[in-house]
Amino acid sequence: MITCLLGSSRNNGNSNALAEKLLINTEHKMINLYDKKIDKVIDNRHSTEGFKNIHEDDYDNILDDVMDAETVVFATPLYWYSMSASLKLFIDRWTESLRDTNRPHFKEEMAKKEFIVIIVGGDNPAVKTKPLIDQFKYIFEFMNITNYSFIVGDAVKPLEIEKDVKTLEKINTLNQELVNRNK
After folding, report:
1. Which residue among 25, 52, 132, 166 has its CA within the 20 to 30 Å range from the CA of 119?
2. Residue of 85, 82, 74, 73 whose CA lies nearest to 36
3. Contact 75, 7 (CB under 8 A)
4. CB 69, CB 4: distance < 8 Å
5. Alpha-carbon distance 151 to 160, whole Å?
6. What is the pTM of this model?
7. How far, in Å, CA of 165 to CA of 116, rounded?
8. Each residue of 96-128: pLDDT tens digit?
9. Per-residue pLDDT tens over the stretch 55-90
10. Contact of 153 with 18, CB cutoff 8 Å
């Protein structure tokens, strides 16, 4: 099973289009983070009361879908050399999940998963996505995640990604790998 977290504020955005192409003919669940309510992290790591989950949002349900997946796809446009705010909110909440007694093996379970990161941006994305790719590499390193890959697309306007032939070829190749794994 594959869980894809879409981080774009556009329903017909380029990162969403790539994610949809990647997941054709696979067993997957698409979650549009922009439509979900995810509270900001409450960092109480050093408080005397310890961890308390006081959120009333969609994070736990989304995380359940991520935990059930073998492969997780993050699809985000490049926003100011970083990921979208909705995806960042989700990942920030891992701070709390690392201390959640209801998820005692959170880090170990996440480390077993494959992660595919789709990033789409304009204005020389091969260079300008480097800060975000580094950010993801540091996140994955901290979480002991070693099975990950990146796909970087070049597009700005809706569905402009259709002109990025090299990225579409990479997406099609990876799609075939995902489809063949589930046969």
Report:
1. 25
2. 85
3. yes
4. no
5. 16
6. 0.94
7. 19
8. 999 888 999 999 999 999 999 999 999 899 999
9. 899 999 999 999 999 999 999 999 999 999 999 999
10. yes
